[in-house]
TrEMBL record:
SUPFAM superfamilies for this protein: C-terminal effector domain of the bipartite response regulators (SSF46894), GAF domain-like (SSF55781)
Organism, as annotated: Asanoa iriomotensis
Keyword Zinc found: no
Alphabetical UniProt keywords: DNA-binding, Transcription, Transcription regulation
Transmembrane helix is among the record's keywords: no
Domain HTH luxR-type positions: 276-341
InterPro entries for the chain: Sig_transdc_resp-reg_C-effctor (IPR016032), Tscrpt_reg_LuxR_C (IPR000792), WH-like_DNA-bd_sf (IPR036388)
UniProt name for this protein: Helix-turn-helix transcriptional regulator
One protein family per Pfam: GerE
CDD domains associated with the record: LuxR_C_like
């Protein structure tokens, strides 16, 4: 039976949340009372590419040195992959899961419950709960489905809240790059990379490596192996109104999976920012197109001509965009979307 009181508490957690990490931490504490687990990994994802970033993870200490391998195997495992899930799933046949067969079973994991947080605007996160003994029940999976229904909108709202305009901060220009070997182990980085990583992970060790770097590299490997077709790209919040775009590419001959992988970080371009902003705010396809037109500096008449709409219809769409983004003027809207405040 589903725990109605737990779901009500989760609803309150979602409504009150203003930041995704705090939301996930509070939600995990509540989820654990209804669906006991021994370890977990909860990542935000780029809503368009579904590539993971900003993990909240509690895993056995024995697995920490194998983090690059764990992430690589996760992306190469088609079984219960978050990009294809239509609901919460467990490992009905664990031996068919590459990540379980090659790694997790050796650390005592007996089952994994996987859950994607997805709506019509994109995939916002995925969650894996691990059990070290026993399996997840149908009732527990049904509860997790309810959790996804309750929290997806609030996770998306927290992402929208990251598009501020104040406190952008300053960082020296790049190039900013990490170099990984074929197993995703770090070989080196450019001098400015450390400055960016320190902002992404302010409480980590002196030379932190964000999981997002491993995730985009693992996505590249997944594409090369035909497991997924999405780009090896993730856009993530840095601080204030600043967003970064992380990409992965092979060095050397195409399709040489022994070649090193370069992971680059750069300030998100205007199209990259606008795409995530529009999804996070729940804009329709037409409203997104209008926003993109506005970022070119076009006025109402020009936008109407380009979109084959009347000026009144453009104004109606614009009012809807203001409502969804919490802005009251074009200047405020573009400041948030483009980060020009």
């Amino acid at each position: 039976m589903r725990d109605a009181s737990a779901l009500q508490r989760l609803r309150h957690i979602g409504v009150a949340a203003t930041e995704s990490r705090a939301l996930r931490a509070a939600a995990l504490a509540e989820i654990g009372r209804a669906v006991p687990f021994d370890a977990c990994v909860w990542l935000l994802t780029d809503p368009e590419t579904s590539v993971g970033m900003s993990p909240l993870a509690w895993v056995p200490p024995s697995l920490m040195p194998e983090l690059p391998r764990l992430i690589r195997l996760k992306y190469l495992t088609p079984v219960n992959r978050w990009t294809a899930l239509s609901g919460a799933a467990r490992l009905d046949a664990p031996e068919t899961s590459l990540v379980w067969r090659e790694l997790l079973h050796a650390h005592g994991v007996t089952d994994v419950a996987s859950l994607a947080f997805r709506d019509r605007y994109g995939c916002w996160a995925f969650l894996d709960l691990w059990r070290l003994g026993g399996t997840f029940t149908d009732g527990e999976l049904a509860f997790l489905d309810d959790v996804a229904s309750l929290l997806t909108t609030h996770l998306r709202r927290c992402v929208a809240g990251c598009f501020q305009t104040e406190d952008r901060g300053t960082l020296e220009p790049g190039p900013v790059m990490l170099l990984l070997d074929a197993g995703l182990n770090v070989l080196g980085q450019t001098p400015r990379t450390g400055d960016y990583l320190a902002r992404l992970l302010p409480d980590a060790d002196p030379q932190p490596i964000p999981a997002a770097a491993y995730n985009v590299a693992a996505q590249l490997v997944a594409v090369e192996n035909g497991v997924d077709a999405g780009p090896a790209l993730a856009r993530m919040h840095l601080a204030g109104g600043r967003w970064l775009t992380m990409r992965a590419a092979r060095l050397g001959p195409t399709f040489d999976q022994d070649a090193q992988i370069a992971v680059t970080l750069e300030d998100s371009s205007l199209p990259d920012r606008t795409a995530v902003f529009a999804r996070a705010c729940g804009l329709t396809a037409r409203e997104t197109e209008l926003l993109q037109q506005l970022t070119t500096g076009a006025d109402t008449r020009t936008v109407a001509t380009r979109m084959f709409l009347s000026e009144n219809t453009v104004q109606d769409h614009l009012k809807s965009i203001f409502d969804k983004t919490g802005t009251r003027s074009r200047r405020a809207l573009l400041s948030r979307a483009a980060g020009t405040g």
